[in-house]
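Hi Y.,

Following your request, here is the sequence exactly as I used it, all 348 residues.
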Amino acid sequence: MTAESVRWGILATGGIAAAFTADLVDLPDAEVVAVASRSRASAEAFAERFGIERAYGEWGALAEDADIDVVYVATPHAAHRAAAGLCLEAGRNVLCEKAFTLNAREAEELVALARGRGSFLMEAMWMYCNPLVRRLKALVDDGAVGEVRHVQADFGLAGPFPPSHRLRDPLQGGGALLDLGVYPVSFAQLLLGEPSDVTARAVLSDEGVDLQTGALLSWESGALASVHCSIVGGTATSASVTGSQGRIDIPNGFFFPDRFVLHRDGRDPEEFAADPADGPRNSLRHEAREVMRALRAGETESPLVPLDGTLAVMRTLDAIRERVGVRYPGESPEAEGPLRPVEAVTPA
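Below is the corresponding structure, written out as C-alpha cells. Let me know if you'd prefer a different format.
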C-alpha cells in the first residue's frame, strides 16, 4: 500500500463482484491487481473485462498474493467463512459481503481470527457508508425526532425464482432473510442497537428456506421495529423512523436513498436529498473509500461498520431463523442452540 494507491484483490466473479470492481476502477487511489475464482476461465474473463493483471483459478493463490493490501470477498454468503478465513489466515485484510456469514458462530470465528492477527476486517454493509444514511443517523442521534419509538423497513423481490436458483438453495444459504432481510435488520440496529427480544413468522419453500419473513424486534426502551423481506413479492423498499417528536420517511430504496423527509411536530416537512457529487445512488464507492481510509489510518475496524455491530446483526438473524425453523446443511443443534418448534411456518 502506498500513499497513492491501495491494491485490491477480488475473490469471486459474480454480479456484485463486477459492480464493486467497476466502482473501484473509477477511484484514483484504488488499484485492482488480482482476481480469483474456482473457475480459471471465469477469473481470466473477469480480469480481461476490468484490465486486471493476475487471474487465479483457486482462492488460495489470491490469499497468498503478498502484493494485495485487501481482499473483497464476494462469494455467496455460505462460503464467506471459508473464503474470508483463508484470506485472514494468510495475512490479508478483508472486506466481506453481507450477510457476513451463515450464522453468528461463523461470524465470531472470523472476528476472532482478524482481531488475533491484527488484520482489518469489515462487513460490506454499504448502507452504513452511504452519505445520506449517515446524515439520517446523525439527525436521529441528535434527537431530531425525539426518542425513537418504532422503525419500519422492507425489502422484497417479485421473483419468481426457480428451486435451482441460489436464493432457493439451502446449500448456498438461500432464502429471503440472509440475502434481503439483512438490510431491514441492519437499518433498525443502526439506530437502536441489538434488540432484547425477537418474534418472527415465515413462509417456507419445499427446500426449507424462507420465501418471506416478517419479524418484530423489541428493545427494553420500549422501541419496536417491524421488518419484512420476501423473494415472492416486490416491496417498496421503504423505511420510516417514528419518534416521540417526529418522523423520518424514506419512500423507496432505504439502503441507498436519493432523499428522505423529516417531519417534526409543529414544523413544515424538511426534505434531505443526496448530493449529486456523491455519485450514483447505487454506488459502492463509499464503502471502498471507508476501507481505504481505515487501512491508511492503521485501523483494524471501521467505526462506520464496527465488527461488534456486525456480530449483533448476525445474532438477530440467527434468532429469527430459530423462530421460523430455518437451518442450513452443516449447522448442528449443538453449535447453534436448540430450535423450538414453530407452528407459524407454512410450507409453500
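The first strand starts at residue 6 and ends at 11.

Thanks again,
Q.
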